[in-house]
């Protein structure tokens, strides 16, 4: 755990339920999940395909609504927010790295990474410096001017990671952030996330199948059929 970690719960999840569909064909993706993640803690969520990892991350980040239960992020009751409120959450302290990258096709790597800083009205000189630092950290100095269609899948993922970290979020939510990366790039991205957790006291909630990422986590939560099982 980072030196910032202290009992200061950034994420509090209580008895969370989420289903898709209704009637006999309904899928109960989350069946009463509860846990807490502290400031500066890197929590890995593991479990078989279909165990509910993406559903859990999406509800915590406000992309999907829970059927029942409560999620609080940095003191905000996410489950009580309407759609606008949930969108606002992601501009304000919660960053998400999605499985499909979520980059803007028309923008260069530099512009994509700088987007959250633009939204927060960072002065341009400071913004440029932060973006350059992040692109360097993810090993993409030479690709700053490239648009997503000029980048490989691994490079797009690294841009997405840099963008998610740009505005020093309180909470980073990442769905298999190294899933589509080769071993070396995956290690670099994991080290980057671990480093940010250490340096900035970010709380990170990640789903992963990667043993190295699991080893780097402060805590591992095991999901099985929508329930947390003993670690
Ligand atoms: N939009 C949806 N409509 C219907 N069922 C869904 C939907 N999203 C997820 N599910 C179902 O909910 C369950 C949990 O899915 P989820 O994507 O959360 O699992 P996961 O652990 O993230 O899987 P993976 O590791 O394959 O990404 C699965 O049975 C899945 O088929």
UniProtKB/TrEMBL annotation:
Domain ABC transporter, chain residue ranges per copy: 11-231
CDD domains noted in UniProt: ABC_MJ0796_LolCDE_FtsE
Pfam family, one: ABC_tran
SUPFAM superfamilies in the record: P-loop containing nucleoside triphosphate hydrolases
GO MF, one annotated term: transmembrane transporter activity
InterPro entries in UniProt: AAA+_ATPase (IPR003593), ABC_transporter-like_ATP-bd (IPR003439), ABC_transporter-like_CS (IPR017871), ABC_transpr_LolD-like (IPR015854), MacB-like_ATP-bd (IPR017911), P-loop_NTPase (IPR027417)
PROSITE patterns xref list: ABC_TRANSPORTER_1, ABC_TRANSPORTER_2
A single GO cellular-component term on record: plasma membrane
Keyword Glycosyltransferase: no
Keyword Cell inner membrane in record: no
Keyword terms: ATP-binding, Nucleotide-binding, Transport
Name of the protein: ABC-transporter ATP binding protein
Origin species: Serinibacter arcticus
């Amino acid at each position: 755990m980072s030196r910032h970690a202290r009992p200061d719960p950034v994420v509090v999840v209580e008895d969370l339920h989420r289903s898709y569909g209704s009637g006999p064909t309904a899928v109960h993706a989350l069946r009463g999940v509860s846990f807490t993640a502290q400031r500066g803690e890197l929590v890995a969520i593991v479990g078989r395909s279909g165990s509910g990892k993406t559903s859990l991350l999406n509800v915590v980040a406000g992309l999907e609504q829970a059927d029942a239960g409560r999620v609080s992020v940095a003191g905000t009751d996410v489950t009580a927010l309407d759609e606008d409120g949930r969108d606002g959450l992601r501009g304000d302290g919660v960053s998400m790295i999605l499985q499909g990258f979520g980059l803007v096709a028309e923008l260069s790597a530099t512009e994509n990474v700088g987007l959250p800083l633009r939204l927060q009205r960072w002065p341009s000189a400071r913004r440029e410096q932060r973006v350059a630092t992040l692109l360097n950290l993810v090993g993409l100095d030479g690709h700053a001017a490239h648009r997503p269609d000029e980048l490989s899948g691994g490079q797009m993922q690294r841009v997405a990671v840099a963008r998610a970290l740009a505005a020093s979020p309180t909470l980073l939510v990442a769905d298999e952030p190294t899933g589509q990366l080769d071993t070396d790039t995956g290690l670099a991205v994991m080290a980057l996330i671990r480093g940010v957790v250490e340096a900035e006291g970010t709380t990170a909630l990640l789903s992963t199948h990667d043993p190295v990422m699991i080893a780097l986590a402060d805590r591992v939560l095991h999901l099985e059929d929508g329930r947390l099982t003993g670690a």
